[in-house]
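Quick illustration, no need to memorize.
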Amino acid sequence: MHDACSQTFQSGKQIVDKIRTMGFNANPIGKELEIKCTNCEKVFQMATMESQCPSCKMVYGVTPCHSHSAQFVKAAGVNY
């Protein structure tokens, strides 16, 4: 198990920063997750560890260890 599995993240920015640092942000997740945007409430499919709402550009992130469930996806900010 690597560091990201045991870390607790308080914000989406922390998650996105971590996966960018590890180089995982563009990695595909196993099964696409259906995400309801917290900013504009549009539903979109999250296919990579870092994804952006196509409607309002809110950025979302999830760590590799938690990419199996949308409950672990957190918003980082618009155009973050």
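The radius of gyration is 11 Å.
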